[in-house]
Amino acid sequence: MHALIVLAHPDSQSLSHAIAAGIAEGITMFDAGNSFETADLTEEAFDPRFNEADIAAHRRKAEAPADVAVEQARIDRADALVLVYPVYWWSMPALMKGWIDRVFANGWAYDDISGKVVKKLGHLPVHLVGIGGADARTYERHGYFSAIRTQIDHGIFDYCGAPVMTSELLFDSDAGTGAVHIEMARRIGSNVFNAAGRAASGAA
Questions:
Q1: Is 163 helix (H, G, I), strand (E, B) or coil?
Q2: Best exposed site among 49, 129, 148, 166 by fewest CB in 10 Å?
Q3: What is the spatial distance between Cα 75 and Cα 153, in angstroms, rounded to a whole number?
């Protein structure tokens, strides 16, 4: 089984990078037959700007731009998609959002035909791991748990039919909790291709 881990953080020494590496370690920890690919959007200089070529593809007047087709092929090769990102302004970074805007396109992630939406990614389990600087009580007090999950889990992935099996927020990232979070990342990774583990993580 093969996972695509997508990461968006400008600092290669960041906790986000360490957590992505921990997830990758967990994926292969108990089954050497599992594999992963990491898409570091900053390092790869992915262009997140939705442009005229993207609009033409959305309107079915042109094929997907070449860089978008490459990303779609990466996902097509994967048995699971893992997104790792720091929480910026109670959402994912613009770079990752732009990757989704361009890659999860009409005709590939879904079909919008005369206002009827056909979901096309029901075969793709998704695992979401956000890293937040605030504590859990802050997220709970202001309703950020539900706001983030409504926007990302439901608004993006449910729209395309991709089942969200893991939706984790790791808190207090500025308070020296890195080692705890990395260990949690290994656990998440070990459950990516474990049916029982996926169900448990998705219910969390």
A1: coil
A2: 49
A3: 17
66, burial (CB in 10 Å: exposed 0-12, middle 13-18, buried 19+): exposed
29-67 pLDDT, tens per residue? 988 899 999 999 999 999 999 999 999 999 999 999 999
**Nearest to 9, CA basis, from 72, 74, 94, 91:** 94
139 neighbors 169 (Cβ within 8 angstroms) = yes
Q: Is 155 exposed, middle or buried (0-12, 13-18, 19+ CB in 10 A)?
A: exposed
Instruction: Report the predicted TM-score, pTM, of the whole model to 2 decimal places.
Output: 0.92
Residue type, 126: V
Q: What does the alpha-carbon distance between residue 150 and residue 146 come to, in Å, rounded to a whole number?
A: 6
Domain count, the chain: 1
CB 130 within 8 A of CB 77: no
Closest CA to 91 of 52, 145, 47, 48: 145
Residue 9 sits in a domain of what CATH number? 3.40.50.360
